[in-house]
Every structure is written in C-alpha cells, then in structure tokens.
Design goal:
Elements: H1 3-27, H2 31-56, H3 62-85
C-alpha cells in the first residue's frame, strides 16, 4: 500500500473526527464536555498539520503545529481554571 494513500485516508479520518468534535461543542450537554471537545479539536488540527507535512514532504508546517498545540494547551488550562474558580488571574496579594 502506498504511503501517500495511507496519509490521505488518515487526513480524511481525522477531519471526520474533527467534525464530530464540532458537533459536541455545539450540542454538548455540559460545559466540561464542550471544553474537552475544543481540546480534542486542537489535537486533531495538530494531527492534520503533521499529516499534511508528511504528504508534502516538508518540515515547514511542523512549527505551526507546535504553536497550535501550545496555544490549545494553554487555552484548555485557562478555561479549566475559570470553570473551577471563576477567574483566571488571582489578584489576591496575600
């Protein structure tokens, strides 16, 4: 089986998973479900970029994938902290 065919099938599978995550973000019954779906969308986008990089035979896109992964992680942590405490930055000086 050709490597490019496998990469193309993988891109399609991850794109379908991404669409299902978008559905969970819109319809999700609770806010934590929506946050997990958003984090999964970030992971799926990184996977699509990595697969596209393999498909093109270049490493240029991997820097963008790394930046998106870091932003998705920081965003998930910020939303989780907001859901837990109600604010993101503690202003208490004690």
């Amino acid at each position: 089986m050709n490597l490019m065919l496998v990469v193309d099938i993988s891109i399609i599978a991850v794109a379908i998973a991404n669409l299902l995550c978008f559905y969970r973000v819109i319809v999700g019954p609770t806010v934590p479900d929506k946050v997990v779906a958003l984090d999964t969308i970030g992971v799926n986008i990184v996977a699509i970029i990595a697969l596209f990089s393999i498909r093109q035979g270049t490493m240029l896109y991997l820097d963008a994938a790394l930046v998106i992964a870091i932003l998705a992680f920081v965003g998930t942590v910020a939303i989780a902290k907001y859901l837990q405490r109600g604010d993101i930055i503690d202003r208490d000086s004690n």
